[in-house]
Amino acid sequence: MRWLSTFIGLLSLFVATSVVAQEPYRLQPGDTVEIWVAEEEDLRRTAVIGPDGSFSFPLAGHVKAQGMTVEELETALRQRLAGYYKDALSLTAMLQANTAAQPTVFIAGEVSTPGEYRFRDGMTVLHAVSLAGGLYRQAIPPADQDRAILVERDIKLAENRLDELGVLTARLQAELDGKTVVVTDQVSLDSPLLAQEQKVLDDRHSLQSDQEARQQEAVAMQGRIAASARSELETVQQRVVLAQKRLDSTTELVAKGAAQAVRQFEQESEVATLRGLVSELTTGLLTAEQLATTEVATFEREQKERRTQLHAEIVAAQREQSATRARLADSRSILSIYAERQVRDGPVVPQLALYSIVRATGGEMREIAATEMTPILANDLVRVVYRPALSGPPADPSVAEADRVGLLTLGGNEISQ
Fold first, then answer.
1. E-strand spans in 29-186?
2. What HEC string does 44-73 produce?
3. Per-residue pLDDT for 348 more than 80?
4. In terms of domains, do 208 and 277 share one?
5. Statement to judge: residues 197 and 339 lie in one domain
6. Would the pLDDT of 20 be above 50?
7. Which of 52, 74, 85, 191 is the most buried (most CB within 10 A)?
8. What is the pLDDT of residues 224-275, one digit of tens each?
9. Taking a C-beta distance cutoff of 8 angstroms, is the pair 357, 381 a contact?
10. Can you give the CATH number for the domain in which 61 is found?
11. What pTM does this model have?
12. Domain of residue 289, residue span
């Protein structure tokens, strides 16, 4: 059977562990020991045993701890420190929890993951089986009705998801093409899915219209600002030409002594002011034109990004459709196998899980019949096997009696629970 080799290997490890568990634990490299000295707080510390089997401790120097029990280590430390104190020291050493040294249990047989697991007080057989991933499901016949129900549920979920993806793809494509109606043969016209996606499409078109209207209004406003700036610029430029002519005439008169220089300075100031205004109006005109161009470019970029996003969403939906169709085909194939198996084999024979505990007692190995609620001890081996459940009382009364009192055999010896 599948679990036989695993059971034999775990049994060997279990026997060795049971023997070792009866002996005092001896320190080894990597162990962590907490040491307290009541009289000297400075000597309270945590020591890790090094690869050479020793560790350093104040006043005691290097202490070879490998192979010692915790009690032997306490005695050795007291002896090393005795020369420094008149009175006997109250020294205590404690081994910190080490995963490798913690008690374990072994689970073998018809479980998902046989192996060695950490033991905790109060564990039952059911706890152990849960740690091992539960019962091995392949041991249950494929025609089991519970699994068929799960497959039927998967089929229904896949069919519903295909409907959702079909309508979603149609809506995305309609938005990409600029259409206002979602058209698909995936669902009926009165389907809530279709109504839902149509509502999303309507909202998208409404948002698109609002964005386009705002963009057009912004461009129109910048256009009006630019036109006003351009008209005012032309007027100021004409004033600059006239002011320059007056300045030229005044300059000639001043040169001939027919006019005062103050008049020339005033006209020069007027020309400079008008030219500064021309510069400001030119900058304003360029800014308005640039803002209008930027507004158009921003709108076009947003539209392009939205189209790219729509393409990506369509591709993602199509990929999910392909994966869902493949999963649906697999589920339908599995369901057909269940149906064919049920027709061929007839009614399903229920399987009964039987539990037993292999335990070292008095130096001997015993196998004890158990139930899910039977308590287990550290270093126990829990074994799980399947047997067809009997629809009626067994023909052999001894079998019924064995089931009642939980008698099992190991190595030819009958052992009671």
1. 32-37, 45-48, 54-57, 61-64, 91-95, 104-109, 115-118
2. CEEEECCCCCEEEECCCEEEECCCCCHHHH
3. no
4. yes
5. yes
6. no
7. 74
8. 888 888 899 899 999 989 989 988 988 888 888 877 888 888 888 988 999 9
9. yes
10. 3.30.1950.10
11. 0.41
12. 145-345
